[in-house]
Amino acid sequence: MRRVRHPPRADFAARAAELGFSFHTIDGAPYWVEDAHYEFTADEVDALDDASAGLEEICIEAVDRLVKDGGGYHLFGLSDLACQLVEASWRNRHRHVYGRMDLAFDGSGPPKLLEYNADTPTALFEAAVVQWEWLQAFDSRVQQEGGPDQFNSIHEKLVEAWRQYGIQGAVHFTSVGPGLSAYVEDRGTTDYMRDAAHQAGLASVVLDIEAIGWNGSRFTDAEGRVIETLWKLYPWEWLVAEEYGKLIPESRCLFIEPAWKMLLSNKAILPVLWQMFEGHPNLLPAFFEPGRIDGPEVSKPILGREGANVALDGRPETPGEYGTQPRIFQAQTELFRADGQHAVVGSWLIAGHPAGIGVREDTSPVTTNASRFVPHLFR
Asked: How far apart are CA 283 and CA 342, in angstroms?
Protein backbone atom coordinates (compact mmCIF):
# COMPACT_ATOMS: atom_id res chain seq x y z
CA MET A 1 0.00 0.00 0.00
CA ARG A 2 1.36 3.40 -0.94
CA ARG A 3 0.19 6.93 -1.65
CA VAL A 4 1.20 8.16 -5.10
CA ARG A 5 1.09 11.79 -6.19
CA HIS A 6 0.30 12.72 -9.79
CA PRO A 7 -0.79 15.78 -11.79
CA PRO A 8 -4.51 16.61 -11.48
CA ARG A 9 -6.71 16.49 -14.54
CA ALA A 10 -7.26 19.89 -16.12
CA ASP A 11 -10.84 18.96 -17.02
CA PHE A 12 -11.83 17.46 -13.65
CA ALA A 13 -14.52 20.06 -12.91
CA ALA A 14 -16.19 19.37 -16.26
CA ARG A 15 -16.01 15.60 -15.73
CA ALA A 16 -17.45 15.97 -12.23
CA ALA A 17 -20.36 17.97 -13.64
CA GLU A 18 -21.03 15.30 -16.26
CA LEU A 19 -21.11 12.63 -13.56
CA GLY A 20 -23.36 14.69 -11.29
CA PHE A 21 -20.63 14.84 -8.64
CA SER A 22 -21.70 18.20 -7.24
CA PHE A 23 -20.06 17.81 -3.83
CA HIS A 24 -16.43 17.38 -4.89
CA THR A 25 -15.91 20.65 -3.02
CA ILE A 26 -17.80 21.22 0.24
CA ASP A 27 -17.97 24.61 1.98
CA GLY A 28 -15.15 25.85 -0.22
CA ALA A 29 -12.75 23.02 0.68
CA PRO A 30 -11.81 20.15 -1.65
CA TYR A 31 -13.45 16.85 -0.73
CA TRP A 32 -12.21 14.86 -3.73
CA VAL A 33 -8.43 14.46 -4.00
CA GLU A 34 -7.45 14.81 -7.67
CA ASP A 35 -3.67 14.94 -7.33
CA ALA A 36 -3.00 11.63 -5.54
CA HIS A 37 -4.18 8.05 -5.34
CA TYR A 38 -3.55 4.95 -3.25
CA GLU A 39 -2.02 1.84 -4.78
CA PHE A 40 -2.51 -1.65 -3.39
CA THR A 41 -1.17 -5.03 -4.40
CA ALA A 42 -3.52 -7.85 -5.41
CA ASP A 43 -2.62 -9.66 -2.17
CA GLU A 44 -3.57 -6.61 -0.13
CA VAL A 45 -6.92 -6.42 -1.91
CA ASP A 46 -7.49 -10.10 -1.15
CA ALA A 47 -6.72 -9.40 2.52
CA LEU A 48 -9.29 -6.59 2.61
CA ASP A 49 -11.87 -8.76 0.84
CA ASP A 50 -11.34 -11.70 3.20
CA ALA A 51 -11.36 -9.51 6.31
CA SER A 52 -14.60 -7.80 5.29
CA ALA A 53 -16.33 -11.11 4.61
CA GLY A 54 -15.16 -12.54 7.91
CA LEU A 55 -16.21 -9.47 9.87
CA GLU A 56 -19.65 -9.48 8.25
CA GLU A 57 -20.07 -13.11 9.24
CA ILE A 58 -19.36 -12.49 12.92
CA CYS A 59 -21.49 -9.32 12.90
CA ILE A 60 -24.50 -11.27 11.66
CA GLU A 61 -23.84 -13.98 14.24
CA ALA A 62 -23.65 -11.32 16.96
CA VAL A 63 -27.03 -9.87 15.96
CA ASP A 64 -28.57 -13.33 15.99
CA ARG A 65 -27.19 -14.05 19.47
CA LEU A 66 -28.31 -10.68 20.83
CA VAL A 67 -31.86 -11.09 19.53
CA LYS A 68 -32.16 -14.69 20.72
CA ASP A 69 -30.77 -13.80 24.16
CA GLY A 70 -32.67 -10.53 24.47
CA GLY A 71 -30.65 -9.44 27.47
CA GLY A 72 -27.97 -7.26 25.93
CA TYR A 73 -30.01 -4.38 24.55
CA HIS A 74 -29.25 -2.17 27.56
CA LEU A 75 -25.64 -2.00 26.39
CA PHE A 76 -26.81 -0.19 23.26
CA GLY A 77 -29.05 2.31 25.06
CA LEU A 78 -32.08 1.19 23.04
CA SER A 79 -35.59 2.27 23.98
CA ASP A 80 -38.39 -0.27 24.30
CA LEU A 81 -39.65 0.81 20.88
CA ALA A 82 -36.21 0.36 19.32
CA CYS A 83 -35.88 -3.13 20.85
CA GLN A 84 -39.30 -4.06 19.48
CA LEU A 85 -38.32 -2.89 15.99
CA VAL A 86 -34.95 -4.66 16.07
CA GLU A 87 -36.52 -7.97 17.05
CA ALA A 88 -39.39 -7.74 14.56
CA SER A 89 -37.10 -6.87 11.64
CA TRP A 90 -34.63 -9.66 12.47
CA ARG A 91 -37.28 -12.33 13.01
CA ASN A 92 -39.05 -11.27 9.81
CA ARG A 93 -35.71 -11.62 7.98
CA HIS A 94 -35.76 -8.10 6.60
CA ARG A 95 -32.89 -7.91 4.16
CA HIS A 96 -30.17 -5.30 4.11
CA VAL A 97 -28.69 -3.55 1.09
CA TYR A 98 -25.44 -1.84 2.04
CA GLY A 99 -22.96 -0.86 4.74
CA ARG A 100 -19.41 0.38 5.09
CA MET A 101 -16.77 -0.96 7.46
CA ASP A 102 -14.00 1.47 8.34
CA LEU A 103 -10.73 -0.42 8.54
CA ALA A 104 -7.23 0.43 9.71
CA PHE A 105 -4.81 -1.14 7.22
CA ASP A 106 -1.26 -0.48 6.10
CA GLY A 107 -0.48 -3.67 4.21
CA SER A 108 1.79 -5.06 6.93
CA GLY A 109 -0.80 -6.79 9.10
CA PRO A 110 -4.45 -7.84 9.09
CA PRO A 111 -7.09 -5.13 8.55
CA LYS A 112 -8.65 -4.00 11.84
CA LEU A 113 -12.27 -2.91 12.27
CA LEU A 114 -12.55 0.64 13.59
CA GLU A 115 -16.36 0.75 13.29
CA TYR A 116 -19.23 -0.39 11.10
CA ASN A 117 -21.32 2.28 9.38
CA ALA A 118 -24.17 -0.15 8.93
CA ASP A 119 -27.20 2.14 8.80
CA THR A 120 -26.51 5.41 6.95
CA PRO A 121 -23.07 5.26 5.30
CA THR A 122 -22.14 7.92 2.76
CA ALA A 123 -19.17 8.21 0.34
CA LEU A 124 -21.02 5.62 -1.78
CA PHE A 125 -21.33 7.44 -5.10
CA GLU A 126 -17.71 8.51 -5.17
CA ALA A 127 -16.60 4.96 -4.30
CA ALA A 128 -18.84 3.22 -6.82
CA VAL A 129 -18.78 5.64 -9.76
CA VAL A 130 -16.39 8.60 -9.49
CA GLN A 131 -13.21 6.70 -8.66
CA TRP A 132 -13.92 4.15 -11.42
CA GLU A 133 -14.24 6.99 -13.93
CA TRP A 134 -10.98 8.42 -12.55
CA LEU A 135 -9.17 5.11 -13.11
CA GLN A 136 -10.33 4.89 -16.71
CA ALA A 137 -9.04 8.40 -17.34
CA PHE A 138 -5.81 7.77 -15.41
CA ASP A 139 -4.75 4.65 -17.33
CA SER A 140 -6.37 3.42 -20.54
CA ARG A 141 -5.07 -0.12 -19.88
CA VAL A 142 -7.64 -0.74 -17.15
CA GLN A 143 -8.28 -4.48 -16.69
CA GLN A 144 -5.87 -5.32 -19.53
CA GLU A 145 -2.78 -7.46 -19.05
CA GLY A 146 -0.21 -5.35 -17.26
CA GLY A 147 -2.75 -2.61 -16.57
CA PRO A 148 -4.25 -1.52 -13.25
CA ASP A 149 -7.56 -2.58 -11.74
CA GLN A 150 -9.71 -1.35 -8.89
CA PHE A 151 -11.39 -3.20 -6.03
CA ASN A 152 -14.79 -1.97 -7.06
CA SER A 153 -17.86 -3.93 -8.10
CA ILE A 154 -20.08 -1.77 -5.93
CA HIS A 155 -22.40 -0.50 -8.63
CA GLU A 156 -23.03 -3.87 -10.27
CA LYS A 157 -23.67 -5.58 -6.94
CA LEU A 158 -25.89 -2.74 -5.76
CA VAL A 159 -28.11 -2.96 -8.83
CA GLU A 160 -28.31 -6.73 -8.42
CA ALA A 161 -29.15 -6.38 -4.72
CA TRP A 162 -32.10 -4.16 -5.58
CA ARG A 163 -33.15 -6.55 -8.34
CA GLN A 164 -33.11 -9.53 -5.98
CA TYR A 165 -34.79 -7.83 -3.04
CA GLY A 166 -38.31 -8.80 -4.12
CA ILE A 167 -39.90 -5.37 -3.68
CA GLN A 168 -43.42 -4.81 -4.96
CA GLY A 169 -44.44 -1.29 -5.92
CA ALA A 170 -42.42 1.91 -5.70
CA VAL A 171 -39.57 2.61 -3.31
CA HIS A 172 -39.58 5.99 -1.60
CA PHE A 173 -36.10 7.50 -1.09
CA THR A 174 -35.67 10.07 1.64
CA SER A 175 -32.99 12.13 3.34
CA VAL A 176 -32.74 15.44 5.16
CA GLY A 177 -34.04 18.49 3.32
CA PRO A 178 -32.39 21.71 2.12
CA GLY A 179 -31.04 24.03 4.77
CA LEU A 180 -29.29 21.30 6.75
CA SER A 181 -25.50 21.01 6.50
CA ALA A 182 -25.57 17.39 5.34
CA TYR A 183 -28.03 18.08 2.53
CA VAL A 184 -25.71 18.18 -0.50
CA GLU A 185 -23.78 14.99 0.24
CA ASP A 186 -26.81 13.14 1.60
CA ARG A 187 -28.92 14.07 -1.41
CA GLY A 188 -26.10 13.00 -3.73
CA THR A 189 -26.00 9.61 -2.02
CA THR A 190 -29.78 9.36 -2.12
CA ASP A 191 -29.96 10.22 -5.81
CA TYR A 192 -27.32 7.62 -6.62
CA MET A 193 -29.04 4.91 -4.59
CA ARG A 194 -32.30 5.75 -6.34
CA ASP A 195 -30.58 5.49 -9.72
CA ALA A 196 -29.25 2.03 -8.83
CA ALA A 197 -32.77 0.91 -7.88
CA HIS A 198 -34.10 2.38 -11.12
CA GLN A 199 -31.51 0.39 -13.11
CA ALA A 200 -32.80 -2.69 -11.30
CA GLY A 201 -36.26 -1.99 -12.72
CA LEU A 202 -37.87 -0.50 -9.60
CA ALA A 203 -40.17 2.49 -9.58
CA SER A 204 -39.12 5.23 -7.18
CA VAL A 205 -40.17 8.48 -5.54
CA VAL A 206 -37.83 10.92 -3.80
CA LEU A 207 -38.94 13.16 -0.94
CA ASP A 208 -37.53 15.10 1.98
CA ILE A 209 -38.01 13.29 5.25
CA GLU A 210 -39.86 16.31 6.61
CA ALA A 211 -42.56 15.72 3.97
CA ILE A 212 -43.58 12.26 5.24
CA GLY A 213 -47.16 12.26 6.50
CA TRP A 214 -49.62 9.91 8.20
CA ASN A 215 -53.13 9.11 6.97
CA GLY A 216 -54.30 7.39 10.13
CA SER A 217 -52.90 3.97 9.31
CA ARG A 218 -50.01 4.35 6.83
CA PHE A 219 -47.12 6.71 6.13
CA THR A 220 -47.71 8.85 3.02
CA ASP A 221 -45.70 11.13 0.77
CA ALA A 222 -46.44 14.73 -0.18
CA GLU A 223 -48.89 13.55 -2.85
CA GLY A 224 -50.79 11.36 -0.41
CA ARG A 225 -49.38 8.10 -1.81
CA VAL A 226 -48.87 5.30 0.69
CA ILE A 227 -45.21 4.55 1.44
CA GLU A 228 -44.82 0.78 1.12
CA THR A 229 -41.00 0.70 1.14
CA LEU A 230 -38.80 3.49 2.50
CA TRP A 231 -35.06 3.75 1.90
CA LYS A 232 -33.84 6.37 4.34
CA LEU A 233 -30.57 8.18 4.78
CA TYR A 234 -31.62 9.09 8.29
CA PRO A 235 -30.35 7.27 11.39
CA TRP A 236 -32.65 4.82 13.12
CA GLU A 237 -31.90 6.38 16.50
CA TRP A 238 -33.29 9.66 15.17
CA LEU A 239 -36.33 7.98 13.61
CA VAL A 240 -37.44 6.25 16.81
CA ALA A 241 -37.04 9.52 18.73
CA GLU A 242 -39.35 11.41 16.35
CA GLU A 243 -43.00 11.96 17.29
CA TYR A 244 -44.07 9.60 14.49
CA GLY A 245 -41.58 6.96 15.60
CA LYS A 246 -44.23 5.28 17.72
CA LEU A 247 -46.30 4.76 14.56
CA ILE A 248 -43.65 2.63 12.83
CA PRO A 249 -44.79 -0.77 14.21
CA GLU A 250 -48.30 -0.32 12.82
CA SER A 251 -47.30 1.37 9.56
CA ARG A 252 -46.67 -1.85 7.56
CA CYS A 253 -43.79 0.03 5.94
CA LEU A 254 -40.64 -1.86 4.94
CA PHE A 255 -37.58 0.15 5.95
CA ILE A 256 -34.17 -0.10 4.26
CA GLU A 257 -31.80 -0.36 6.05
CA PRO A 258 -33.77 -2.65 8.43
CA ALA A 259 -34.13 -1.84 12.13
CA TRP A 260 -31.81 -4.65 13.22
CA LYS A 261 -28.97 -2.57 11.80
CA MET A 262 -29.39 -0.43 14.96
CA LEU A 263 -27.19 -3.01 16.68
CA LEU A 264 -24.37 -2.90 14.14
CA SER A 265 -24.31 0.87 13.61
CA ASN A 266 -23.99 1.42 17.36
CA LYS A 267 -20.38 1.41 18.60
CA ALA A 268 -21.49 -0.75 21.53
CA ILE A 269 -21.19 -3.60 19.02
CA LEU A 270 -17.38 -3.26 19.21
CA PRO A 271 -16.95 -4.50 22.81
CA VAL A 272 -19.77 -7.01 22.23
CA LEU A 273 -17.88 -8.43 19.26
CA TRP A 274 -14.67 -8.56 21.29
CA GLN A 275 -16.45 -10.39 24.10
CA MET A 276 -17.95 -12.91 21.68
CA PHE A 277 -14.90 -13.34 19.42
CA GLU A 278 -11.93 -12.30 21.55
CA GLY A 279 -8.67 -12.56 19.63
CA HIS A 280 -10.26 -12.41 16.18
CA PRO A 281 -7.49 -11.15 13.85
CA ASN A 282 -9.62 -8.34 12.42
CA LEU A 283 -10.92 -6.98 15.74
CA LEU A 284 -9.33 -4.52 18.13
CA PRO A 285 -9.79 -5.08 21.88
CA ALA A 286 -12.76 -3.02 23.05
CA PHE A 287 -14.58 -2.62 26.37
CA PHE A 288 -17.32 -0.62 28.04
CA GLU A 289 -14.94 0.40 30.84
CA PRO A 290 -11.75 2.46 30.52
CA GLY A 291 -8.36 1.14 31.55
CA ARG A 292 -8.81 -2.48 30.53
CA ILE A 293 -6.58 -2.23 27.48
CA ASP A 294 -2.85 -2.81 27.77
CA GLY A 295 -1.74 0.27 25.88
CA PRO A 296 -3.30 3.44 24.47
CA GLU A 297 -7.06 3.46 23.98
CA VAL A 298 -9.61 5.51 22.07
CA SER A 299 -12.82 6.72 23.69
CA LYS A 300 -15.88 6.88 21.42
CA PRO A 301 -19.54 7.78 22.09
CA ILE A 302 -21.73 4.83 21.14
CA LEU A 303 -23.86 6.88 18.74
CA GLY A 304 -21.29 9.44 17.70
CA ARG A 305 -21.06 10.37 14.05
CA GLU A 306 -18.33 11.63 11.70
CA GLY A 307 -15.54 11.57 14.29
CA ALA A 308 -17.32 13.82 16.79
CA ASN A 309 -16.38 13.61 20.49
CA VAL A 310 -13.65 11.02 19.90
CA ALA A 311 -10.71 11.12 22.32
CA LEU A 312 -7.44 9.50 21.29
CA ASP A 313 -4.90 8.70 23.96
CA GLY A 314 -3.07 11.89 24.91
CA ARG A 315 -5.20 14.13 22.68
CA PRO A 316 -8.14 16.40 23.50
CA GLU A 317 -11.61 15.20 22.55
CA THR A 318 -12.79 16.27 19.10
CA PRO A 319 -15.69 18.77 19.00
CA GLY A 320 -19.24 17.52 18.69
CA GLU A 321 -22.69 17.14 20.17
CA TYR A 322 -22.38 13.56 21.46
CA GLY A 323 -20.22 14.19 24.51
CA THR A 324 -22.86 13.13 27.04
CA GLN A 325 -23.46 9.71 25.48
CA PRO A 326 -22.25 6.42 26.96
CA ARG A 327 -18.81 5.47 25.67
CA ILE A 328 -16.79 2.50 24.57
CA PHE A 329 -13.02 2.17 24.80
CA GLN A 330 -11.13 0.60 21.90
CA ALA A 331 -7.45 -0.17 21.52
CA GLN A 332 -5.73 2.57 19.56
CA THR A 333 -4.07 1.43 16.36
CA GLU A 334 -1.88 3.23 13.88
CA LEU A 335 -3.35 4.25 10.54
CA PHE A 336 -1.42 4.22 7.27
CA ARG A 337 0.45 7.53 7.00
CA ALA A 338 2.02 9.25 4.00
CA ASP A 339 2.52 12.85 2.91
CA GLY A 340 1.19 14.05 6.25
CA GLN A 341 -2.12 12.18 5.76
CA HIS A 342 -3.79 9.44 7.81
CA ALA A 343 -5.76 6.99 5.67
CA VAL A 344 -8.79 4.86 6.57
CA VAL A 345 -10.08 2.19 4.18
CA GLY A 346 -13.86 2.09 3.83
CA SER A 347 -14.89 -1.43 2.79
CA TRP A 348 -18.33 -1.67 1.21
CA LEU A 349 -20.67 -4.59 1.87
CA ILE A 350 -23.54 -4.99 -0.60
CA ALA A 351 -26.24 -7.42 0.51
CA GLY A 352 -23.70 -8.72 3.01
CA HIS A 353 -20.89 -9.36 0.51
CA PRO A 354 -17.63 -7.38 0.04
CA ALA A 355 -17.89 -5.20 -3.06
CA GLY A 356 -15.06 -2.68 -3.05
CA ILE A 357 -13.29 0.04 -1.12
CA GLY A 358 -12.89 3.79 -0.88
CA VAL A 359 -10.10 5.59 0.96
CA ARG A 360 -10.62 8.67 3.14
CA GLU A 361 -7.69 10.67 4.48
CA ASP A 362 -7.07 13.52 6.90
CA THR A 363 -4.17 15.35 8.51
CA SER A 364 -5.76 14.22 11.78
CA PRO A 365 -5.90 10.55 12.86
CA VAL A 366 -9.65 11.00 13.42
CA THR A 367 -11.75 10.79 10.25
CA THR A 368 -14.45 13.50 10.16
CA ASN A 369 -17.03 14.85 7.73
CA ALA A 370 -14.27 17.12 6.36
CA SER A 371 -11.92 14.24 5.53
CA ARG A 372 -11.13 13.82 1.85
CA PHE A 373 -11.86 10.98 -0.56
CA VAL A 374 -8.91 9.60 -2.54
CA PRO A 375 -9.24 7.16 -5.49
CA HIS A 376 -7.33 3.90 -5.56
CA LEU A 377 -6.07 1.15 -7.83
CA PHE A 378 -4.26 -2.14 -7.48
CA ARG A 379 -1.74 -3.94 -9.62
From this structure: 20
Range of the domain at 36: 2-267+334-378
- Of 305, 284, 295, nearest in space to 366 by CA: 305
Across 351-376, b (16+ Cβ under 10 Å) vs e yields bbebbbbbbbbbebbbbbeebbbbbb
Residue 374 lies in a domain: yes
Can you tell me the distance from the alpha carbon of 196 to that of 77, in angstroms, rounded to the nearest whole number?
34
Question: For 156-206, how does the pLDDT look when each residue is reduced to its tens digit (9 = 90+)?
Answer: 999 999 999 999 899 999 998 665 556 788 889 999 999 999 999 999 999
Contact 307, 368 (CB under 8 A): yes
Instruction: Classify residue 179: in a domain, yes or no.
Output: yes
Q: Is residue 326 part of a domain?
A: no
Print the SS3 string covering 161-184. HHHHCCCCCCEEEEECCCCCCCHH
Question: Does residue 279 lie in a domain region?
Answer: no
- Count up the domains in the chain and report the number: 1
